[in-house]
Amino acid sequence: MTMRKSKFNIIFLFILYSQVEILMAATNQWSNAGSGISVSVNVVDFHEGHLDTLYAGSVHGLYRSDDGGLNWQLRGVSLIDRSILSLAINPQKPKTIYAGTRSGMWFSEDAGSTWMIVDHFDTGVLSISTGVNNLVYAGTFGQGVFKSPDAGVTWAHISTGFLSEIIFCVEVHPLNSDIVYAGTDNGMYKSTDAGISWMLIDKFSGLSVRSIAIGVEAGSGSVNVGTFGQGVFISSDGGNEWQASNNGLTDLNVRAVAIDSERPDLFFAGTSSEGFYRSKDSGRTWSSINDGLTNFSIRTISLISGDERRVLVGTAGSGVYSIDFVPEPVIRPSVYKLDLGAVKVSETASKMLEINNDGTEELIISEITTKETGNFSTSPKDFVVPVGGSKQIQIDFHPVSVGDIVENIEINSNDRDTPTLELEVRGIGQQASLTLTPSEIQFGDVALGSYVDTFIVLSNIGNISAKLRNAYFENDSFRLMSNLPSLLLSGSEIKLQLRFIPSMAKGISSRFVVLGEDESKIEALVDGVGSASELTLSTTMLDFSTVELVSDSLGVVLISNSGNISLRVNDLSIEGQGFTVASEERFVVEPAQEHRVLIRFSPQIAGEYVGQLLIRSDARINAEVRVPLRGNGSALALRAQNGLHVGRGISRMLNADLDANGSIDVVLADSAAGSLRILLNDGNGNFETQQRIPTNRSTYGNWDSPNAMAVAPIYGDALDLIVADPMARILSVLRNNGVGNLASDRNDIYIGYTVADVLPLDIDADGDFDLATANSDAASVLVLKNNGRGTFSTRDAYQVDLSPIDLASGNLNEDIFPDIVVANSGSGSVSVMLGDGSGKFNEPYEIQVGLNTTRVHVADIDADGDNDIIAANQGSKDIAIVVNNGDGTFYLDQRVPVGLAAIDMDLSDLTLDVFSDIVVVGGDGEFLTFIENNGNFNFSTRQVVTAKSIISDVAIFDVNNDGANDIVAIAPSDEELVVFLNEDARRGDAPRPPTKLMANDLGQDLGRRVELNWFAPEIDEQLGRTTHYVIYRADSIEGDYVAIDTVRQGLRRYVDVAATLADTFFYNVVASNASVSSAPSDTVWAISEPAPFFEFEVRNEGPYSIGDTIVVRTFVIPTVHSVTGISLYLSYDDSSLTLIDAQTDSLITNSSKNLSTAIPFNVDGLFAGRVYQNKLHNGAVGKVDLSILQSVGTALIDPGIVPVYLGELRFVANVEDQSILNIDNDLNNNRISAIADVDGSLVMPFIPAIPLEIAVNDFLVRGNIKLQAWPANTGSAVTVLLYDEAGELFLSPSNDLDPLKFGIQRLVDGNGDFNLRQVPPGSYDVLVKSPTHLQVRAQGGKVLVGEELADTTLNFEWVGRDTSSILLAGDANDDNRINLADFALLVDFFNQDVAQEPNARQSDFNGDDIVNIADFFLLAENFGLVGMEWSLPASKRPEVMYELERGHHGELRFTNSLSLRGMTLLVGKSPNDLTISGSIWDRPDVVTRIWQEKNGLRIASVLTDEAVDASVGSPFFVLPPEVSLLSGELLMEDGTILRIGMKEQVYLNVTNKLLNNYPNPFNPQTTIPFILANDGHVDLKIYNSMGQIIRSLFSGQIKRGAHDFAWDGKNDARKSVASGIYFYRLRVKDQLMVRRLLLVR
């Protein structure tokens, strides 16, 4: 069976190829067109009615042939030897011929026998063209174009703009004589007004145009142009757009072009040197046909009509040639490019391609081939197309790749000119293509019980969306943590979170799979390793036993890893004082390895120490381990350093930072040598640098006996040195350069008394240090005032007790001025001198403190914040403690016994417990006694040093900068400075608890915030005892106190933001460091309550447009307060919002008068009579003030959370902006928005951080419409269309109630009002339509939005019956036409209630919820009307969609079978015997209605049930013979409308008739109907009142019957004309009919 089929195919192909060979053997052959002419022929012409008579213009004159070109003879003696350049024959007078020569124009009225010259021309006439109505055009050599309206009798020069051009060709459009083309040596010009004006066609600028051909087939629009040098140009749209068409032309010097009048796709071209070309595909390709030609220079082409098509060409030197084309097939596809659209890969889409045979022989398609890509295929592959027939082939597109695919299909046939036709096929291959990045993921080692997350990116790199079904792992240890979307758009990606949670300690691998909709999937490989570690310790407890104070001991804890992965120790920390870990850095212990942890025990005070080592790691088991620590500290001692040799005679010591390096230096007074020694501290307690003063560079000599010393910035910022010389009775001031180097000179101040001590202090608070001296021989204190330049000119003396020996200063009372205390050795007392701030002191008063007082200090001995007085008594061997009452009065609290004479004393904290301790030089200097201050005036005395030699002076300061004060003493007998380092620094002592804790509701909020404030000793923070404070909270005073937060040192305030509303909370605060904490502070409590606040409500909801009135209502919410008064201060942006006066309704601007009397708020109701102020702030725009008061003690508003209305503000939006309304709280300008409580307190309200924002965007457009017969006060849905100047439809989601529908869906209220917000400024065409009513357009056409600040208000017009905004009813199917389809829907739902049948709403035209006769009358009234549109081109509706036959007796019959639901007829006048009897409408289920319209009688019939089938010849309707059928429509079963035409109409007593246009007046379009009695030529034109042609609607042949054309109010240039009266004129042969119409813009 297979072999037989193959044999048959081979035979069939053999037959096909044999036929192709036979056909290809026959060729098109040229031959001489008769005898008698062998010269150069420039032009050949003939008359359509006399095909045997041919004329040829040659270089030697005119030849004529009377036998169709068999024989030629010279005619016209006058033209012999004249070169005939152009010929034309008058189409109305076939014997009238025009001939153009080099010297002018000739014409003949006897078919060329005799000739007369046309006097008008004095130059060569290169071209002549004739048209209808005796029009003749002539193109000249250098003088442009001439026109004759009377067959050549008179001529006018019409080539304005190209007078001097060489006109090679002039061509008049065969269907519109107003259109004329002129080809010149410099371009081509076009006239659309019969030569009155011309326009250069840009495409041809600079080209030499030699020939023009215009297609005569109606609607073809083809214009071909031959150029010399650029080939052929073709326009297929009547000359608007041009394309070069030279595919196949080998000579671009084209002298002649022609278009076949019967086959508009058949083009011809004659070239200068390559002969004759033909195109059978409208110029896409050209083929040369030159067989038989002896001369390939073609000058003219002439197409001879008749039974057989002939082509004549005139050649250069060889006469006229003729060709009769042999029968041949002509292949023509329905399209040359076929787009099959977008198709998914692996799917197939198909389209049909039609192959037509326009030739005269069978077209044999021998093969159709496609590329081997597999994207396209065809069927069938070979076939035969008969003459005039067609055959469809199927093109299948089944893309194998993604993206744009363009290929060619080759069709091989026996078409000689196109043996292989290439067609372009294209399509888009679509496919979702998923990728995962990265394609492999390694999670690495992950400890059991933990997890690791990473991300993978799922991308769709295809060109369509991908549907996703699922994503999963093949192993439960991996999880997808993100939601997988159901759809992934083309070109998008999503990041997916993946998690690895190992379930076992080993390597785990899996695949991450994503499934698509068609079971497609993509995978990524994932793997990870589950791991665990084990922590073991070398000991379970570490005991350090007993360790000496200020020394340390080390212990070791070994941490081992018995697991299989690295053990990460994340934290090592110590709990408990005295223990430290050598390193707290994180570390890693590899499997089977160990790590040494060193623990240091450093006791600072004696006693037992307990703590623990806390180890935190990532071990799966024992992740947190504690190792107990234990040790004991031994007793504390001071350690003496090696003495520093300083020489003999040292009597006094001063400690100060002279070189400003942060360390305390020492100055020694050598009273025996009369000099000073300066020891500079290097910061570590080493005094390696020593200076002796005076030096060899000094300009002064030694002192007599230097003793007391002090430092102060006398001359600048550095500490200058002041030295007292009691023997010389002077003070010396030595300038310090800031680094410890003293000036080479000194400033001596004569005192005149024996100076026992000197004290610098700022007595008069002028910023300069003054000086005070204790004068032992005068029992006085002398005060020297600094004038600011280091000069002391003013002195004041104050009498004190006997032998003043020592001075101290401090603030002793409640003021800020320094006071002085004087130690009086002779009287055993201290004198108190209180400063008054003016540089004076009050009268000194004495306090008896003991016997022979030697030293005095001012310090806060009890740490209560007040400075006390401490005095050393040599005679009574004790230390006096004088306590300050806080106001500058004192009492002697106690005298601490020393047991030895106290010859010197210093005090400071030696035990780091914030209390000042005392060191006393006792006896004759052989002892140093330490008196420890334990607080609460409890003092412990112990002998800390037994001196080996006499001590004369002692000081306490931090020598080595270790944070603990040390003891420094002078041993004059050993000539040494002795340093005792303090190794009993009690740094581990607990800090003192905070004091004066207060808790308060923070206020000005909505609750949940309690503020805490407290006091604490600064010394605790300075010494590191307090590093932070811990806040504790409980919900009852006996409850469990929970730590809620910590605050670093230096901060003594905290806000609890988690205090729940209206609940009572209790708080305490603990001072703490890393090792120890203080006792809790006192407990306080507070309740967090909401503050009152204001609210705004914008009454008219946004969005807002420019020009909108915005009403802002203000409210107050009192919360827990009883309100007796309100003050509200607001600010607004006056650049974008303009306030409206509440009293006058006028706008309040800067230019307004009486701003001071403007009333911003409209206050009514509760507060109407209680307004204290309602005004602009300071009479200026931008700020408003409102105050409301009630009598004192009476509540105006009770507590509550319900908003209470205050009043409203009204604004007008000025500009597009984001405006704010802000509540002001401006203390500087006393604009404080607040609430007055009934208890008299002023309560600050909560003010939101974000003010009220009002967004204003673009403009508001308002409109009003009325629906015909629609009930009053009833709203309706409408569609609003806005077209901008570019013709784009304005889309506005914020206005659109149904974005799925076309246009903007809005609701109109009962008054017909609607609005559109946020419309951008611009010019718009606006139309409105209701689902049951016709569309109307805004009055005036263009609507300008945004020209003014005010709203844009739309008024609509219906042109036709009136100029109101009424939308006419009857459009049941919402297609903007009222016709038979609407009548059918009315019949379908007649007498139905809308409530029971919702679909009946579309036929309820008057909105009364029932379809009845009232709705029918509305439809009948408006039947045939068309709603207004934005822009419609003037186009002729289809003449005939369905043809009926009409007999002589008026019967109408069907010509084709079809299924009908209804019909409508408009007849010329009312018949007397109208009947449906005997027609298909003669049925009980047919509803028929008849009513009178303006142009005739309307008949409508609709079947209520099923459609009726009409067969050929069956009766349709009977009209009396005298009644004309003006128009009609058929309603098909599927709801489509067909227009009725007549196949064989017999009109009895019917004449040509021009009917009234409708609508009239109109805007934007009207319809012009007319009736033709017979077939014929028709001209339909629009004229203005001046008689000028505005628009040519139609010109050409038309069949008899009823016709109509639409005019859109535009001229031939497609520009809208102005409102006014216009005339439309119909010419039928010699009959003219004119009517008037009115255009209203």
Give a written overview of the molecule.
By secondary structure, the protein is mainly beta. Helix content is 3%, strand content 48%. It is built from four helices and 130 strands. The strands form 29 sheets. Strands 93, 95, 98, 99, 101, 104, 105, 106, 108, 109, 110, 111, 112 and 113 form a 14-stranded mixed β-sheet that branches. Strand 7 and strand 8 form a beta hairpin. Residues 1-25, 1359-1363, 1432-1440 and 1544-1549 have low confidence and may be disordered.
Write a short abstract of this structure.
The chain is mainly β. 3% of the residues lie in helices and 48% in strands.
Secondary structure: helix percent: under 10%
Give the strand content: over 45%
Query: For the report, how would you describe the main beta sheet?
Result: 14 strands, mixed
Please tell me the overall pLDDT. Answer: 85
Give me the Rg, rounded. Answer: 59 Å
Helical region count? 4
Global outline = elongated
Structural class computed from helices and strand pairing = mainly beta
In total, the number of strands is 130
Instruction: Pick out the low-confidence regions.
Output: 1-25, 1359-1363, 1432-1440, 1544-1549
Spatial separation of the terminal alpha carbons: 79 Å
